[in-house]
Amino acid sequence: MKNKHIIVGVSGGIAAYKAVEVVSRLRKLGAEVKVVMTENATKFVSPMTFGEISGHPVAVKMFEDVHDWNVEHIALATWADAYVVAPVTANVIGKLASGIADDMLTTQLMATKAPIFLCPAMNTNMYENPITQRNMNTLRELGMNILEADSGHLACGVVGKGRLPEPAKIVEWLSFHMMKNDVLADKTVIVTAGGTQEAIDPVRYIGNRSSGKMGYAIAEQVALAGARTILISAPSSLPVPYGVEFVPVDSARDMEEAVNSRYENCDAVIMAAAVADFRVENMADTKIKKMDKLELTLVKNPDILKGLGANKTHQKLIGFAAETQNVIEYGKSKVLNKNLDMLVANDVSKQNAGFNVDTNEVTFIYPGGQIVQLPLMTKSDVAKRIILALAEL
Ligand code: PMT
């Protein structure tokens, strides 16, 4: 968002107050924000509030708020990198769908070439009205982005769909679309993340130190690269990245089932999960009582990635290797042994790399023996490099 020019349009609904926080959040992300209001919106929040929060005069009327010699509605419309309207009412949606431009907001929306992002908020009946739905579909077909309204208690007293989503969600949605590219457009990519949990009894499990940070960063970048992204994740406390289909799992066998059932129809799998190699042979049905000594028998878990490699048809496979010694040597044998297209090896004994940190230092290893060593960088940057490597593959 840094230095991006964003116009926030505000139309007349009780949710207009939430737009104040949208503007504030965008500015905190480094964007320059200008606000345009309909006259009805000024009945809910004063233009002065938006002026203070945005740091710019607010445009409301067509012929009174001229701030410089440029024709105001055209000047603002061409200044914008993105135009977001929150809340957008049924009235403004209807006008837009019909090509009516009778105030500053709708005139600018007609005049801008910037991508348009609409966040509807209104009474449930108005939202569900076939006319509103038809108008929204028309706008979608014309390439405008529409964020579905949330459900919940509405100001009119009813419970239903029509709430303006929280400002944080609006800003996340906007950032996602503005950062999106098409490096992996039309592809479906499965990403695994986190450490699987192997049950001992109903309350205990064997786990590992994976936080999910690496896999979630990859899923986020895959989605930004325009792919349909399926994140199959062992338990993690991280928020699910925007634009990702989320499949939560617990054990290695759950993960295997989730991956295998989606394998045929995907174009690539990136296995960043730390999958337990063993599980408890006989999980106790009830909580095991305290005792002096407890012996558990562990049996081998399936190797998910190896199975994918053996059944590969058109898919590209990227595996990870968590090593503490001979990283390249072990990595080279894993890439061949599992029939991978690329392996991301990380030395998890290094500080600031591997488990539960925000950075990683990795080496890409290819089946032909080619090696690309990357310096220490954030997991988000590692993820971007993996996406570029996958796109090349
Ligand atoms: O989640 P974070 O805290 O961010 O930590 C990131 C990470 C260290 C977990 C990640 O960078 C990483 O290295 N993931 C792979 C961990 C691992 O299981 O490595 P491995 O060398 O044991 O397995 C090799 C590959 O086979 C991996 O892609 C793994 O997902 C896969 N595998 C392993 C065992 C198994 N039974 N089935 C598998 O599919």
Automatic annotation (TrEMBL):
Q: What is the lineage of its organism?
A: Bacteria, Bacillati, Bacillota, Negativicutes, Veillonellales
The name this protein carries in UniProt is Coenzyme A biosynthesis bifunctional protein CoaBC
Q: Which pathway, per its entry? A: Cofactor biosynthesis; coenzyme A biosynthesis; CoA from (R)-pantothenate: step 3/5; Cofactor biosynthesis; coenzyme A biosynthesis; CoA from (R)-pantothenate: step 2/5
Task: Provide the species name.
Answer: Veillonella seminalis ACS-216-V-Col6b
Q: Which family does it belong to?
A: In the C-terminal section; belongs to the PPC synthetase family. In the N-terminal section; belongs to the HFCD (homo-oligomeric flavin containing Cys decarboxylase) superfamily.
- Gene Ontology cellular component annotations, sorted alphabetically: phosphopantothenoylcysteine decarboxylase complex
Region: Phosphopantothenate--cysteine ligase; residue ranges are: 189-393
Kindly indicate whether the keyword Cell wall biogenesis/degradation belongs to this entry. no
Q: What Pfam families is this protein classified in?
A: DFP, Flavoprotein
Task: Report whether Lyase shows up as a keyword of the record.
Answer: yes
In the UniProt record, what gene is named as encoding this protein?
A: coaBC
